[in-house]
Amino acid sequence: MPNKNPFKASSGTTPPLLVGRDDYIEDFTYALDNGPGTHERTTLITGTRGIGKTVLLNHFGDKARERGWFLFEETATPGFVNRLRDQVYQQIRTLGEGSRKTLKALNLNIATLGGVGATFDTLPDHLPNYTLRMALQDLLNFQKQQATHIRQEPSGILITVDELHYNVLAETRDFGAVLQHLTRDNENIAVAVAGIPSSVKPILASKEGENPVTFLRRTNRVELDKVSTDEVRRGLVIPLDATDKSWDTVALKMAIDACGGYPFMIQLVGDWCFRYSETNTITPDVAQKGIAKAQRKLGQLVHEPALNDLSDIDRTYLLHMAQNEGESSTSEIAAKLKKTVQYANTYRTRLLEAQLIHQTRQGYVDFELPYLREYLREHEASMILDYI
């Protein structure tokens, strides 16, 4: 039996077994098959870091590929709309290779930019005046013509955009406008976008004098949360079926508890326990060592970047929470911050929206991310120095 580590503890990498997300995949797959107008064809995925947003986007893309769809994937950094346009343009050129018809004869938008008598073979590598809307319309129309010629159903287009952020609000509006036009025209197109709540919420907010990104406000919302204990168990056990290793019963219980329902921890714990195991059985001693390593890795890969996105007072709020063993009183935190409860609630609300904390009962909060309390305690001194 092969003994290759089956766990994938790299951020955004598709794990060997995706657990707890079947309903979302089924809904999106149904939308692809059911045709234009199905609500889930525009889906917004939100959730904290490491909860599996990118992985779910990857699975949506896999379902589209299985159906012969065109798939275009981007990350929402500045210029993402033009990068998508360039991807679509290159796909059109690839489809048109060998075609002797002029672009004008094919009734494509690109004909107005390619010059009189232009063909696919004479197109330049880059067309800066070609818009994303023009490119998508051309790809849809051209592949419809090809499908009609060979008497097949035309395929669709899926666009996925990861790490959506309000820093690219203007581009996101432009992107949304393009999709709205194509959707109204009943085109065979779908889109799935993902981002952390604190980065997405400002895009959804409708401020006076600003146009909200309507297509996002009307999307199918997928708010990812922790997975059940049974799903964690499946995520740890089933990948080992393809190897010569298995879990000791006690070690498995330790690993399940350590994951806390957090998808990325399943991969981290599984990965390091597998690495440290020198026999066919992952023992409690190995599990203890692997869990400790996984916790440190979680700090580097999830906690550190999450905290870097916060203001100094946000982080101080969390540092005060970390002094408690369990839930924290919001009034006590306000007192430690030397602020009124109402003023401190501004920061509490931001941390709730970022899904770093959750409300346990009226007036009390606790950490949402696993091991964030321990990370804050360990790094408290250096964090305080950073604020000075």
From TrEMBL:
Gene3D superfamilies: P-loop containing nucleotide triphosphate hydrolases. It comes from the Bacteria. Residues 18-185 form the Orc1-like AAA ATPase domain. Transmembrane segments: none annotated. InterPro entries: AAA_16, P-loop_NTPase. This is AAA ATPase domain. It comes from Corynebacterium epidermidicanis. The lineage of its organism: Bacteria, Bacillati, Actinomycetota, Actinomycetes, Mycobacteriales.
